[in-house]
Write a structure and sequence with these properties.
The protein is α+β, with helices and mostly antiparallel strands. The chain is built from three helices and six strands; from the N terminus they run ααββββαββ.
């Protein structure tokens, strides 16, 4: 037992690293952390969704909205006729349905069903 304690205190068996190696490791770790993408979505903001259009139903009767369904969701979404971006959004949604390409959809509320804005998916 005494031999083990003296062996530990003497420093034998420990690996000694040169300071240059430690500096290189620190620089590599800093470089790796700098290349990660920042998360710009705050907890209280509405995250955009990437969705592909399944169907678009035109307004009928007293409805003042288009009813949109997406393949990735079982919900019915509304594109209001009063929305200032309605025409542009409708064109993008119809293109998405025709080409089967996803679009970026932003809703008016975090867990709502009313579409606020539609953009092309640049990914």
């Amino acid at each position: 037992m005494l031999n083990i304690i003296s062996y530990i205190k003497s420093g034998r068996g420990r690996k000694r690293y040169k300071p240059g190696l430690i500096i290189i490791f620190m620089l590599l770790s800093i470089n790796t952390m700098a290349k990660t993408k920042p998360h710009n979505i705050l907890p209280d903001t509405i995250p955009p969704q990437i969705l592909t259009v399944a169907n678009i139903t035109a307004p009928t009767g007293n409805n003042k909205f288009y009813e949109i369904t997406f393949y990735q969701s079982a919900r019915f979404y509304k594109l209001m006729l009063t929305n200032k971006n309605c025409k542009q959004a409708l064109v993008l949604l119809k293109q998405s349905k025709k080409t089967n390409n996803p679009v970026l959809v932003i809703l008016t509320e975090k867990y709502g069903d009313v579409i606020d804005l539609v953009k092309k998916n640049d990914e």
